[in-house]
Amino acid sequence: MRMPVLTLAAILTASPALAAKGPFLSLSNTDFVVLLAFLLFVGVLVYFKVPRLVAGKLDERAVSIRSELDEARRIREEAQELLDEYERKRKDALAQADRIVEQAREEARLAGEEAKKDIETSIKRRLQAAEEQIGSAEARAIRDVRDQAITVATAAARKVVAKQMTAEQGDGLIDAGIDQVGSRLN
């Protein structure tokens, strides 16, 4: 009810018909005819409830816009949740990568220490083997020198004994040596 009163008040105050000269309520006055047509048009609009229909359509549009805004807000919240989840996963992946790198460094350090120990052990074994070979060579050389000395001494003693000993003395020495060997074997 408020709408037609406001419309009528606006028409009457802003009407150019008030500025016309001559009798206003005459059909020959175009301003009066335009005023009547306008009032008739407004009346037809009110009769067919066009303002209510327009208001209903505007309300429907407002409801649909509100639901679209709610849907957009919901989608935005879901997107934010997904973004947060992916950010969390990215941070977890970075942390895991850091742990893997740190673990690889630690394993490399341990492997280096193990390799160093293995090399030291191998060097010690080789040094020990070399020392054993040197000791063995020294013992062999000493044995060879001793054997050679024994051979030389035996040859010299044979020559000396052969010149000083008689056949009877030689037979006695041989018998004594056989007895001595026999007693050692038993």
What report would you give on this structure?
By secondary structure, the chain is mainly α. Helices cover 88% and strands 0% of the residues. The protein has a domain at 1-48. The longest helix is centred in the middle third of the chain and has 115 residues, at 50-164. It is rod-shaped, with a radius of gyration of 66 Å.
Find the structural class using helix and strand composition. mainly alpha
Uncertain regions: pLDDT < 50 for 5+ in a row?
none
Distance between the termini: 152 Å
H/E element string? HHHH
The chain-level mean pLDDT equals 83
* Percent in helix: over 70%
Largest sheet: none
Per DSSP E runs of 2 or more residues, the count of β-strands stands at: 0
Tell me, briefly, the overall form: rod-shaped
**Percentage of residues in strands:** under 5%
Cα radius of gyration in angstroms: 66 Å
The helix count comes to: 4
Main attributes?
single chain, mainly alpha, 186 residues, 0% strand, 4 helices
What's the layout of helices and strands?
Elements: H1 2-13, H2 30-47, H3 50-164, H4 167-185
Helix pairs in contact: 1-2
